[in-house]
Amino acid sequence: MSGALSRSPAEAQRAALIADALAGLSAARKTLPCKWLYDAEGCALFEAITRLPEYYPTRTETRILRECGPAIADAIGPGAAVVEFGPGDGAKAVLLLRALAAPAAYLPVDIAPEWLDAAAGRVASAFPGLPVRPVVADFAQPFDLAGRADGSATHLGFFPGSTIGNFEPEEAVRFLRRARTTLRAGARLLLGADLVKDTRVLEAAYDDAAGVTAAFDLNLLARLNREAGADFDLGGFRHAAIWNAEKERIEMHLVSRRTQSVCLAGRVFRFAQGETIHTESSHKYRPERLREMAAAAGWQAAAMWTDPDGLFSVWLLEG
Ligand code: AVJ
Question: What whole-number distance in Å separates Cα of residue 144 and Cα of residue 181?
């Protein structure tokens, strides 16, 4: 056998990384898809970001889930099967499942089986007896819960962390529409969404004083050196976090400190001084905008919870 079918998952992943890098670095405005930020090193750095004083989203959302847990559970009612998109370490699922009355099952969905194991293990040990059924799928693409679904339970989608903000608006609407189909009739979705706020607060959250976010961003170039044989000089780039007021999003960029050339997969890419690689967009929402996007995807906002400072929001959408 030859070709794509005989490739190991690691080889296929490496080929996809190289293809994305060649396409992104050839564009008039250089870009790299943010999903490649999360190799083992990137996941560890993101974990450190969530504990930074400037990075408010994780701790604020956790606080909302904790403090509004009873109200959220009331709105949802008993017997829901929780389907989490991109469960990370499963910590937020534990908070939600603890609040809910008699959850029927936990179905974490992720493309990376290692991460699924972490979340499934954590939830299974916190809730002995709760059926835990991991689903290996790329939730950014259409997928089916297939045999994992529980015939009688209603599905509650759970998409915390404002990960929805990494999608372009039209991709976010497409994701929301597909989630309705995947979760089936009577579906609901508990969605975490970061809110528009003071530019200085936003820029500090994505460019912290300790330089952890800069290391997270620059790790993408280190990864291309490790896995794609590129020869990026990490000292030749610096991290920048920029508020795009028109698109209401924080953009992470790697800025070339000087004129330079980089080799990757036999191709040479030239950088002017100050030219950037756009590595991530993190959209922030106004409540009316989020309601509009949900409606465009066929959802209705049933409830919204926020923290006392109005930094972050958790939404219950009904299909
Ligand atoms: C996990 C994707 C939601 O956009 O806030 C944190 C990732 N990037 N700091 C975000 C991230 C830079 C984070 N998400």
Answer: 9
Amino acid at 203: E
- How many of the other CB atoms lie within 10 Å of CB of 138? 12
Q: Kindly report the protein residue whose alpha carbon is nearest to atom 10 of ligand 1.
A: 282
Report the pLDDT averaged over residues 199-218.
Answer: 98
The predicted model scores a pTM of 0.94
> pLDDT of 146-205, one tens digit each?
766 666 678 999 999 999 999 999 999 999 999 999 998 889 999 999 999 999 999 999
As a whole number of angstroms, the distance between CA 250 and CA 165 comes to 10
Neighbouring CB atoms inside 10 A of 246's CB total 5
Nearest to 81 by CA among 186, 174, 175: 186
Ligand 1 close to Cβ of residue 213 (< 6 A): yes
Is residue 249 within 8 Å of residue 281, measured between CB atoms?
yes
One DSSP character per residue, 219-235 reads: HHHHHHHHHH-----GG
Sequence-distant (6+) residues with CB within 8 A of 185 are: 319
Ligand 1 pocket check for 164: Cβ under 6 Å = no
Q: Which atom of ligand 1 is nearest to the CA of 282?
A: 4
C-alpha 195 – ligand 1 centre gap (Å)? 13
